Amino acid sequence: MLKKIIAALSIAAIFSTVAPTMGEAAASPQTKAISAAKTQLGVPYRWGGMTSKGFDCSGLVKYSYSKAGKTLPRTAAEMYKKGTRVSNLSPGDLMFFAPNKAARPTHVSIYMGSGKMIHAASSKGVSIASTSNTYWKPKYIGAKRI
């Protein structure tokens, strides 16, 4: 009986040290980027910001994807030239916004799923917003999958 208990405890100890790293290895870059962005919730907006002291929209996206092992350009307009255009959003897709439909994108966010996006807004800093938000929805010009 004692041998069975020791064996069970040994197996539990092995899984407790291995299981967390197994989950991390299985996480996609998109999932990792969303997780990285979430750790920055509440960080203030800072034009040109790319650190935890302050982010602008593209700085947050670039930072989050770099934590996931992906290199992105610096600005929303440059990011818009990358990836594959998608109409059915999946978590991790980049959403782009412009002041009018013909303009180049001036804002970018990361789609989180369930109609939510995470971004750095000048009014709220790093925050989560609804994709149907009355301010952002009419400015939406498309999404890209990285």
Automatic annotation (TrEMBL):
Question: What are this entry's molecular-function GO terms?
Answer: cysteine-type peptidase activity
Check the UniProt entry and state the signal peptide residues, or none.
Answer: 1-19
Record-linked PROSITE patterns: NLPC_P60
Which keywords does this chain's UniProt record carry?
Answer: Hydrolase, Protease, Signal, Thiol protease
Q: Which InterPro entries match?
A: NLP_P60_dom (IPR000064), Papain-like_cys_pep_sf (IPR038765), Peptidase_C40 (IPR051202)
Domain named NlpC/P60: which ranges? Answer: 27-146
Q: Which family does it belong to?
A: Belongs to the peptidase C40 family.
Indicate what this protein is called per its UniProt record: NlpC/P60 family protein
What is the taxonomic lineage of the source species? Bacteria, Bacillati, Bacillota, Bacilli, Bacillales
